[in-house]
Amino acid sequence: MVYSQRRSPGSLRLLLWLLLFAVWEAGSGQVHYSVLEEVKHGTFVGRIAQDLGLELAELVPRLFRVASKGHRDLLEVNLQNGILFVNSRIDREELCGRSAECSIHLEVIVDRPLQVFHVEVEVKDINDNPPRFFRQEQRLFILESRVVDSRFPLEGASDMDVGVNAELRYKLNPNEYFDLDVKANEEETNILELVLKKAVDREEIQEHLLLLTAIDGGKPELTGTVQLLINVLDANDNAPKFDKSIYNIRLLENAPNGTLVIKLNASDADEGINKEIVYLFSDLVLDNVKSKFVIDSNSGEITVTGELDYEVCNLYEINIDAVDRSPFPLTGHCKVIVKLLDENDNTPEMVITSISLPVQEDASVGTVIALISLSDRDSGLNGQVTCTLSPDVPFKLLSTFKNYYSLVLESALDRESVENYELVVTARDGGSPSLSTTASMYVEVADVNDNVFVKENNPPGCHIFTVSARDADAQENALVSYSLVERRVGERALSSYVSVHAESGKVYALQPLDHEELELLQFQVSARDAGVPPLGSNVTLQVFVLDENDNAPALLPLRPGAGGAGGALSELVSRSVGAGHVVAKVRAVDADSGYNAWLSYELQPAAGGARSPFRVALYTGEISTTRSLDEADLARQRLLVLVKDHGEPALTATATVLLSLVESGQAPKASRRWWVNVYLIIAICAVSSLLVLTLLLYTALRCSALPTEGACGPGKPTLVCSSAVGSWSYSQQRRQRVCSGEGPIYFSSIPFFKILKVGLNGLLFFA
Q1: What stretches pass through the bilayer (predicted)?
Q2: Domain range 451-546, its CATH number among 3.90.1170.40, 2.40.37.10, 3.90.950.20, 2.60.40.60
Q3: Helix/strand/coil (H, E, C) string of 275-289?
Q4: I want to staple 411 with a disulfide (CB 3.0 to 4.6 A). Which of 279, 394, 528, 767 is the partner?
């Protein structure tokens, strides 16, 4: 016969609650994955980088990392493809025990800017645990006088799995004397009873051997068995009886030793010694239960004898036997279920991670400073934790997820006013009385440099920056006025380039700036109060003039004496040359920088759509043959080469190349090589002269610089890009974002660097 465990209304309510919770979680923006327990190492879980909206190329530069409290080695992320995979064996029962829900919470953290994502990986149960009985053999003693339908409690099996895999049904081997009855109480635990369906006779059979089988609901089904050894006794007709078969008790955790749990009372219809009852723990009671409770054998009082902790175990099942004192004793049975009630006996725990210190004084409002995670081992209101921050600080706490907070910047910082802050973070639970934990943080404010980036060709009189100074005095002593610290910029005065408004501190560019003429303008602004004597200080500003594409490519002659850049360029070509032979080279330079000076060459289609036997290399400008020349080709070939830079918008120049096809003996090979050598010598001399001139100018500028401006410091490394068809390079300083000039700045100084560019043969070099 087979008995199945049915779902109670309580389990249906729990299932509905979990479904609603899952829907809420999906709407909150959290990423969810699921994985089966016991899967192999390397099993795919999810494309975490893609699902979080992160590019694979930015995982390493942004210090992509995954944190998981207590489960660091179970899951890992491949930074090459952004895939979350199983790193080590996951045992759901070891991880979550008998909990209906089991998930691993991951914190995904990236920097620049600092972001945190929350990922839940649900660990799904597989049927990997068979039902197990606590003992391999259960022994029962039954008086032969027991009437039909008498019941005897049996120990049920347990299954470490959850859900349908832990739903057990029981089967008893066929026999004529005993049947099996399974009941479920309100705590959703099974109560197994052996029912006597036919009176036993000790003189006929003294011992009955039965096999009880437990079958779980998994696929495939797993089973566990226990042998029932039933001894038939001669004696006493009436067994002690309790008022109830099950007693449900509610008890506060941390109840002191000696606290009365319940006083049991059983009765026996017999007389004399057969009516005297002794109360005992059943053999089914586990050792950990016996260490928490004790029963008085005479009075039936159960009292507390050990520490009761709700967070360790919140439910105890105690099987009690009432045995009479007959030489052939009979036993009555009941079960006491003790359910503990939680008390607020655990203080909240706080972990502060990913602290971004020090904080730049120009950090924008909303910048994440630190991540705070809270936890409390209590349940209900006792386990609900809130986090607060000490008042009167320019920071605030934002709740990003349940029990997770971000410490963010709430208002602008000023290092000149406050150099560091001591923050006190308090975590408090909802218990009564509530418990709290505090942690202190020291936030240092770092100074920032004052750089200004302005595009060239700006309109005269445009506002490029604002300086601001503060004075702790009052009235006239606190009135601040601003002025330029005059100096020479080359042959011109500084005041011919910029001016500063005396009251507002706004800095204006008085004339259009030219990147090719002036790449960096360094000067000082003085702030003075109106006191007697006046007090003041200076701030050094560096105005970087950013390049725009305002210079078209300029053509160079094919060789010395071959004509100007604006005229046609001519060259003799032998008809005997083969395919791929270089016959000429178009050379051009661009006065701009970076992409604006990166040139490409294109051959314009010939008139009438005729196919030319020549082509031009995209980045070198070399003109070569596409095939062998023959008599059918025209003796004079006119090529139009379009030279284009990579600026926005692109500027172009057109070179006209006249190629004269001659017989092999008529081509002036030696003369051409001689001219090439002469051209190379002239180019080398020109570059050397420019280098010497640059060094002299650099030395003169350093000697003439103001003492307060500091020496020229090295700039950032030069980024060099190269390919099979050409090379170009540009300074990384040019990739910085152009500031709008809005908002105040405070006085500081930064290093100075110099940019040098030299153009030759279409190649650009930056230092």
Answers
A1: 674-698
A2: 2.60.40.60
A3: HCEEEEECCCCCHHH
A4: 394
